[in-house]
Amino acid sequence: MTPIDIFSDAHLHSTYSDGTGTIEQMARAAIKKGLTTIAITDHMPLPFKTRYAMDKSRLQDYRNEIDKVRQQYCHKLNILTGLEIEYIPKIADWIEDIAAMGWDLLITSVHGLLVGDSHCMVNGNEKEFQNTLNHGFKGDIQALCRRYYQTLQTATSVHWFDITGHLDVIKKHNGGNRYFDETTPWYQALIEETLDVIKTHKIKMEINTAGLNHPVKVTYPSPWIITSAIKRDIPIVMGSDSHTPKTLGQYFDQTHDLIQ
Ligand SMILES: [Zn+2]
Ligand SMILES: [Zn+2]
Hints:
The chain has one domain: Metal-dependent hydrolases (TIM Barrel). The protein is 37% helix and 17% strand. It has helices at residues 23-33, 59-73, 92-99, 126-136, 141-157, 185-200, 223-231, 252-259; strands at residues 8-12, 37-43, 78-86, 105-109, 112-115, 118-121, 163-164, 204-208, 236-239. The protein has a seven-stranded parallel beta sheet. β3 (78-86), α3 (92-99) and β4 (105-109) form a beta-alpha-beta unit. It is globular, with a radius of gyration of 17 Å. It starts with 7 loop residues before the first strand and ends with a helix. One zinc ion (ZN) is lined by residues 84, 109, 111, 165-166.
């Protein structure tokens, strides 16, 4: 198994998208926590309005500010310029243009699915998830999961990105198997298929520890999926998905011990 670096946090948000800390505050928090590398990965701009994406007009300032903070703290911390890409097949050209600007690290995630012209959230609050399930997919949880994982597989196959983000975030509100059972064959087949695509396209998989603070109280992905990824020798990186300086690197130690 390739060693997992628990002193690097590959997934952070700043005030450029929906985080509460400036890039400098995130860097200072990382140094305080003893991290050696962080990637600033704010939500990429989208061609429609959301409550979390960066405004496209701020993209260059974002890159410049990361450069400035990197130089300022280079003796203590390695800072990577990244983005969390929101993969939506219909806007692939828009995404490709942003990806082509040149980045140290790009995470690809699926947060929502386009149903007709509406962007239906998968990892928003539970009301939004229910709306996606009931109105976007007529209550068919299998159809929703299938579309989610197929979209993630497409995102993994385009070769613009380095890491698959919060792989099974679709389970965010699934505590107590409220919506589906992860041990059912149809769900496990979707996961195995997705891991095969990740392996084939040689991209890394993130262990996103923010899930431990979400209603489901489990990492993304679940431990059985991490085991399955390790068996395939898929490289793994740690991401706290921090939206505040307080949570950088959180649960990395415990999660690492668990995997060992
Ligand atoms: Zn995300
Ligand atoms: Zn994120």
